[in-house]
Design goal:
The chain is elongated and about 40 Å long. Helices cover 36% and strands 33% of the residues. The protein has a 3-stranded antiparallel beta sheet with strand order 1-2-3, with no helix packed on it. It has one domain. The chain has 3 helices and 3 strands; from the N terminus they run E-E-H-H-H-E. The chain is of the alpha+beta class. The mean pLDDT is 84.
Amino acid sequence: MVRGAQVLSQGHINAGGIDKDVTFVNAGSHVDDDLDARYRAKYRHYPANIVGSIITAAARSTTLKLVPR
């Protein structure tokens, strides 16, 4: 069980040489804030509406953390 996080589902990943059973949990707003800042920095030379479409509340709600089981 993952403490302090809402468990959404469980699954299995195989990527980059990693083969693990995982639990998917909400990443938390601190992760969303960090990702938003990185998108703004990376795409700052594009029109604001491009970055705005990436950092919406709906997009933030899909950010998950993979916790090995």
